[in-house]
């Protein structure tokens, strides 16, 4: 892994008189100024969720960014990116497309990205032992790389997995995503044992942000997971990580502006709304039954949304830890909720979403959302990864490494298509 520390400037003046000393001092000042420009401190600016667009948790309390004290440190001190950090060996991009696709005029890009353990460096006493969160602090070089990947992706609505907390996400945004317009932020405790949760960064307002940790699902847990006895045998299934439900609103004025960019000047009468269920299903091949229960519950959640609003546009997206041929994802296709990758070729490297060579990150959609989605715009953005089969515990991450997952994106036109 490339060093996260830039070499300290040599401030000792060489011999040779006053003029040489003066030149050296000026050079040192130049280094200091350059480092200051490339190493801005977080300004502590809180997410721009207004009270009506707050994050409503199970208690009904609004988790407002304005109430969060700006971190003075965390996730490592922000450092100037070094050439080694950013120099990506093309051979390390094994899957996905090497560059993000150009966004079509008049569209909104929606994406999902498991950023792999975005943990800060503050010790949470509730998370200790083998899953001690302080051991999971994401290296500064990987944070910088993740910021560059997200900037290249240019998603208007970005859903994330493996976020430690709302506060950690704000710090990451303020220090590594400056200028990208992510004024609206949502992240709620998902009930996961090691403290990871799903989140949303958006350029458009968010509302109805909620989840239900430890929600009981249908069915009962088996007596064993693979060859390991299950101490919760016979207990009801429950979500490993509660899905995050968020409504994205593209205001009428923004819809009009987007359409104008594509040459469409037709007056727009209303906002465009998109409901998201951001998920991170249980990992591990032996937990297929758990994922089936989670998938069936997600389908029921979509049906409940549609019952409340027959015209609701719904996407179910995130890290499903399963390929499309697995029983747990067949649940979605049988329910009429296809994946944007439903027609992918099994060995297509461009649509692999994980360094293991699998397509396990998906965006499923309902009938109402389908007409707005531009299927030809979908892509997986390839990023630096270890060699296939390398042990992540012993093999250093390559330069530019940000995550073991790759971002998945698709563009949509934010106007209700004729039905």
Radius of gyration: 23 Å
* Architecture per CATH nomenclature, i.e. the level-2 architecture: 4-Layer Sandwich
The fold-level CATH name is Deoxyribonuclease I, Chain A
Provide the residue-averaged pLDDT: 81
Order of helices and strands: HHEHEHEEEEEEEEHEHEHEEE
Number of helical elements:
7
The CATH first-level class comes to Alpha Beta
The CATH superfamily bears the name Endonuclease/exonuclease/phosphatase
Largest sheet: 6 strands, mixed
Number of strands: 15
The first-to-last residue Cα distance is 52 Å
The quaternary state of the protein chains shown equals single chain
> Largest beta sheet: what is the strand line-up?
3-4-2-1-15-14
Bin the strand percentage: 15-25%
Number of domains: 1
How would you portray this structure in words?
- With 419 residues, the chain is α+β, with helices and mostly antiparallel strands.
- The protein has a single domain, classed as Deoxyribonuclease I, Chain A (4-Layer Sandwich).
- It has helices at 18-38, 83-86, 140-153, 166-176, 252-261, 288-308, 327-334, and strands at 108-118, 157-163, 184-187, 197-202, 206-210, 216-220, 224-225, 228-229, 236-238, 244-250, 272-280, 314-319, 361-365, 373-380, 408-412.
- The strands form four sheets. The protein has a six-stranded mixed sheet, with helices on one face. Strands 5-10-11-12-13 form a five-stranded mixed sheet.
- Strand 1, helix 3 (140-153) and strand 2 (157-163) form a beta-alpha-beta unit.
- Residues 1-84 have low confidence and may be disordered.
């Amino acid at each position: 892994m490339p060093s996260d520390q830039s070499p300290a400037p040599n401030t000792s003046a060489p011999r040779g008189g006053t003029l040489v000393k003066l030149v050296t001092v000026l050079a040192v000042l130049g280094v200091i100024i350059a480092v200051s420009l490339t190493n801005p401190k977080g300004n502590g600016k809180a997410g721009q969720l207004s009270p009506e667009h707050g994050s409503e948790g199970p208690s009904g309390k609004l988790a407002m960014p304005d109430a969060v004290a700006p971190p003075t440190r965390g996730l490592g001190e922000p450092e100037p990116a070094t050439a080694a950090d950013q120099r990506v060996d093309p051979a390390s991009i094994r899957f996905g497309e090497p560059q993000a696709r150009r966004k079509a005029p008049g569209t909104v890009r929606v994406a999902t990205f498991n950023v792999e353990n975005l943990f800060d460096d503050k010790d949470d006493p509730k998370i200790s032992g083998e899953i001690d969160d302080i051991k999971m602090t994401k290296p500064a070089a990987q944070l910088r790389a993740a910021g560059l990947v997200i900037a290249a992706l240019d998603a208007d609505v970005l859903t994330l997995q493996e976020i430690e907390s709302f506060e950690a996400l704000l710090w990451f945004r303020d220090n590594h995503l400056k200028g990208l317009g992510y004024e609206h932020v949502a992240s709620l405790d998902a009930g996961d044992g090691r403290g990871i949760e799903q989140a949303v960064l958006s350029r458009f307002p968010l509302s109805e942000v909620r989840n239900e940790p430890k929600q009981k699902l249908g069915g009962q847990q088996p007596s064993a997971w693979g060859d390991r006895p299950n101490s919760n045998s016979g207990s009801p299934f429950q979500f490993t990580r509660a899905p995050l439900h968020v409504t994205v609103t593209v205001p009428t004025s923004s819809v009009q502006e987007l359409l104008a960019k594509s040459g469409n000047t037709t007056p727009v009468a209303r906002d465009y709304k998109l409901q998201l269920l951001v998920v991170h299903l249980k990992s591990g091949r032996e937990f297929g039954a758990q994922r089936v229960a989670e998938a069936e519950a997600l389908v029921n959640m979509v049906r409940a949304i549609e019952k409340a609003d027959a015209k609701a546009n719904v996407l179910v997206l995130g890290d499903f830890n399963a390929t499309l041929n697995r029983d747990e994802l067949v649940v979605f296709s049988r329910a009429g909720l296809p994946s944007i990758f439903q027609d992918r070729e099994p060995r297509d490297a461009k649509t692999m979403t994980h360094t293991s060579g699998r397509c396990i990150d998906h965006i499923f959609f309902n009938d109402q959302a389908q007409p707005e989605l531009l299927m030809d715009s979908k892509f997986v953005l390839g990023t630096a990864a270890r060699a296939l089969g390398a042990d992540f515990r012993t093999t250093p991450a390559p330069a530019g490494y940000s995550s073991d997952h790759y971002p998945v994106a698709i563009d949509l036109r934010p106007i209700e298509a004729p039905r």
